[in-house]
Write a structure and sequence with these properties.
single chain, 302 residues, alpha/beta, Arc Repressor Mutant, subunit A, D-Maltodextrin-Binding Protein, domain 2, 3 domains, 6-stranded mixed sheet, 5-stranded mixed sheet, 9 helices, 13 strands
Length: 302
């Protein structure tokens, strides 16, 4: 059987449903109506000649054919978007220095910067990974041009704040009895206070077993069963168990990210990169997808 040619809008609808877990949320992501997304999904299945999604009264799951197509469709859409951006992008030349907190120096965000450089081959990218307090200070001193950093109450309220969920993460063999062994980052990490306040409200007792400045070290400590980590979605690894309210762990307050730039006059490179990043972050609203069987950034614009 020969499969018909793929249409970009049909692939967008399919990937959105796979990552959102249902048609309604996919429609919201794409700014399309639910009937429109359903029709596009049906047209794609007709073109493939096989069902892509198994539907029950309460769940949706990718079929074997759906999983194969999902892997290729994400790459097709990525290439399509890169081509679109390269053809519409202005000619930029020069150097831009950006900063990321280690919490968010994930593959997702780093790929955004790497794609920017691929689109603009005459731009040199310098990247600094540090805690958000250091990045804010570097911006004030004009040592970096732009940073994605945790929202600071000392700064004017930024536009396009993005939230990322925090989770209680453990290994299967970690003890969950009081006092709880915690794996934390040192001050001024705001997640510490979030964890302490949440556990206090739950009337749980704890002690700080491991303190580290390294996300990688915290991940290894959690995987080893040494304690309970307070980690954002981007830092979760396979093998982590996520503790929920039924386990006696109330939900944590989400973290807030924003794009900050220097207080001085911006260059065309920084202006374009800031605009490019805002668009990409505002589109990164998909939660972890059980349907696609693949972790997705748990970001939502507020």
């Amino acid at each position: 059987m020969t499969v018909g040619r793929f249409n970009i809008e049909l692939l967008e609808a399919f990937v959105a449903v796979a990552e959102a877990g249902n048609v309604t949320h996919a429609g919201t992501m794409l700014n399309r109506t639910q009937p429109c997304v359903s029709t596009q999904l049906r047209r794609l299945e007709e073109r493939v000649g096989k069902p892509l999604i198994e539907r029950t009264a309460r769940t949706m799951n990718l079929t074997p054919a759906g999983r194969i197509l999902y892997q290729h469709a994400t790459e097709i859409l990525k290439s399509h978007e890169e081509a679109r951006l390269r053809l519409s992008a202005p000619e930029l030349t020069g150097t831009v220095h950006v900063g990321l907190p280690e919490w968010y120096a994930t593959r997702q965000l780093q790929s955004i910067f790497c794609n920017f450089v691929r689109i603009h081959p005459n731009v040199k990218l310098e990247m600094t990974v540090a805690d958000s307090a250091t990045l804010h200070e570097m911006l004030t001193n004009n040592e970096i041009n732009l940073a994605i950093a945790l929202v600071s109450s000392a700064k004017p309220e930024p536009d396009g704040v993005v939230e990322e969920a925090l989770h209680w993460a453990v290994a299967d063999d970690c003890p969950l009895t009081d006092p709880l062994p915690l794996i934390l980052f040192p001050e001024p990490c705001p997640f510490r206070e979030m964890a302490f306040n949440t556990l206090t409200r739950a009337k749980r007792q704890w002690y700080e077993r491991i303190t580290t400045t390294s996300v990688a070290a915290a991940q290894v400590a959690v995987l080893s069963g040494a304690g309970i980590g307070c980690l954002p979605t981007g830092a979760l690894l396979d093998g982590f168990r996520i503790l929920k309210e039924q386990d006696g762990f109330p939900p944590l307050t989400a973290t807030q990210l924003a794009i900050y730039t220097q207080s001085t006059t911006q260059s065309p490179i920084v202006d374009y990169l800031e605009e490019h990043l805002r668009e990409l972050l505002q589109n990164a609203i998909t939660p972890r997808s059980a349907l696609a069987g693949k972790p997705q950034p748990d970001l939502r614009v507020v």
